[in-house]
Design goal:
The protein is an alpha+beta fold and 159 residues long. It has a single domain (8-131), classed as Transcriptional regulator MraZ domain (Chemotaxis protein chec, 3-Layer(aba) Sandwich). Helices cover 38% and strands 23% of the residues. The chain has helices at 29-39, 59-70, 77-87, 105-110, 131-146, 152-155, and strands at 14-18, 24-26, 42-47, 54-58, 91-94, 100-102, 116-121, 126-130. A hairpin with a 4-residue loop joins β7 (116-121) and β8 (126-130). The longest helix is centred in the C-terminal third of the chain and has 16 residues, at 131-146. It starts with 13 loop residues before the first strand and ends with a helix.
Length: 159
């Protein structure tokens, strides 16, 4: 089944936000109506299997991803790693009345989240980064991308 653009949640942009003393973040206003309308404020938060950041998905999109991961060969070492990291750390969360979600302490520790967070829209989901880690990651990606040619798909992309 193909999803049409109008059916997609499209989370875009980089948002600088703060975490409160209880470990909660406020979702930016520009994304609230999509989250409330399309998933009734229910989301899933987990760790990124390869980077020191967190992933935040609307519940429905998370469930589709989880089904795909669960269908992978269970004896494969890469599947085990992915399941244990991504699904094993998954936590359901729901927007409170003040449009906040709680980030459990274990997930904050994994992503080394302190006080300042980058919430980066990735289309169907968000990445949550500690601000300092985000800056390092972007600089590292810029440096690495200068060392090799982009793949053909990117070379032919017109911006």
């Amino acid at each position: 089944m193909t999803r049409y653009i109008e059916d997609l949640f499209m989370f875009r942009g980089v948002h600088n936000i703060s975490i409160d003393s209880k470990g909660r973040i406020k979702i930016p206003v520009r994304h609230l109506s999509q989250i409330i309308t399309n998933c009734a404020g229910k989301m899933v938060l987990s760790i990124h299997p390869d980077d020191e950041c967190l992933l935040l998905y609307p519940l429905g999109d998370w469930q589709k991803l989880e089904l795909k991961v669960s269908a992978l060969p269970s004896l494969n070492i890469h599947t085990k790693r992915l399941k244990r990291k991504l699904i094993g750390h998954a936590t359901e969360c729901e927007l409170d009345k003040a449009s906040r979600i709680l980030i459990p302490s274990t997930l904050r520790e994994y992503a080394k989240i302190d006080k300042k967070i980058i919430l980066s829209g990735q289309g169907l989901n968000f990445e949550l980064w500690d601000e300092k880690s985000w800056d390092k990651q972007i600089k590292n990606l810029d440096s690495l991308s200068r060392k090799e040619d982009p793949p053909e798909e990117i070379k032919h992309l017109s911006l």
